Amino acid sequence: MNTQPRIYVAGHQGLVGSAIVRTLRARGHTGIVTRSHAELKLTDQARVRDFFRSERIDQVYLAAARVGGIHANNTYPAEFIYDNMMVQANVVHEAWRSGVQKLLFLGSSCIYPRLAPQPIREQDLMGGMLEPTNEPYAMAKIAGIKLCESYNRQYGTDYRSVMPTNLYGPGDNYHPENSHVIPALVRRFHEARLADAPEVVIWGSGKPMREFLYVDDMAAASVHVMNLDRASYAAHTDPMHSHINVGTGEDVTIADLARLVGEVVGYRGRIGFDTSKPDGTPRKLLDVSKLKRLGWQASTPLPEGLRRAYAAFLQVEDKRLDSGRKRAAA
């Protein structure tokens, strides 16, 4: 008789969701349930309700989200707040209605105030103004945390939240305008190397500092937190700040990051900075002491993670180019 839990990974085709699926499979889980966006639109409450009624889910990893960098957040603020709030509300509520007791919500470090003390502690949430360039997305993620806390308080569920720092790695979005900083830099330096461009210009001054976590480390942390016994989790959190930061505890300037990406890609030209473009939050480093006390810490150094990320990007590019050649030959 199969006693393994049926685990629904919402957003399994995205950066974090795909890494969680890889991690669960590597640990022997066979009862993994997934649905593509075409199969299940999570903003549709009726369809989400039907899914939970029919699938008998035991655990949920809520990694589905509309995500993007500064440009995407500035261009589509209504979609970022609406889609994320609807997805979170539907999945959490229908999971509860169907009797799911264990759920892990994946948020973002952008939930914290723009000028929060460094490193940022979990209790700094809602202690100041958010970064304007991603405020709608951040508000949606804060609502997701409070949604989980509220269901725990009222219904006795065991819904937990993890707040990752900036993520990167296999499965990333390399769109030239809507991607986050590392995939955007990887594409730009790769294309500049192929074109033998004399210079790559980076948005902003290069002075802001950011923390970056390899996505498979994030997946391992998520599974670790999900599987903590309830007493251990409760002992390190409180009902009003139940989320846990996930990061490396180390940060780097955007300028130094750009130089690292250039080295990994093999670009030999100059790196310039367009100071007319926004920098975003000056610094964003997470305090990860709570997670370390719970027995987990990151293991992938940034240079090694960047090498793996670039290798994954090259695989994506090879498939794209091969597909283009086949279409041209047809």
From TrEMBL:
Active-site residues annotated for this sequence: Y137 (proton donor/acceptor)
Recorded metabolic or biological pathway in which this protein acts: Nucleotide-sugar biosynthesis; GDP-L-fucose biosynthesis via de novo pathway; GDP-L-fucose from GDP-alpha-D-mannose: step 2/2
A Pfam entry, by short name: Epimerase
GO molecular function: GDP-L-fucose synthase activity; isomerase activity; NADP+ binding
EC number: 1.1.1.271
Annotated catalysed reactions: GDP-beta-L-fucose + NADP(+) = GDP-4-dehydro-alpha-D-rhamnose + NADPH + H(+)
Site annotation Important for catalytic activity: residues: S108, C110
InterPro entries cross-referenced by the UniProt entry: Epimerase_deHydtase, GDP_fucose/colitose_synth, NAD(P)-bd_dom_sf
Record has Oxidoreductase as a keyword: yes
Residues involved in NADP(+) binding: 11-17, 106-109, 141, 164-167, 180
Keyword NADP attached: yes
Residues given in the record as substrate binding sites: R188, W203, R210, D279
Name used for this protein in its record: GDP-L-fucose synthase
Lineage: Bacteria, Pseudomonadati, Pseudomonadota, Betaproteobacteria, Burkholderiales
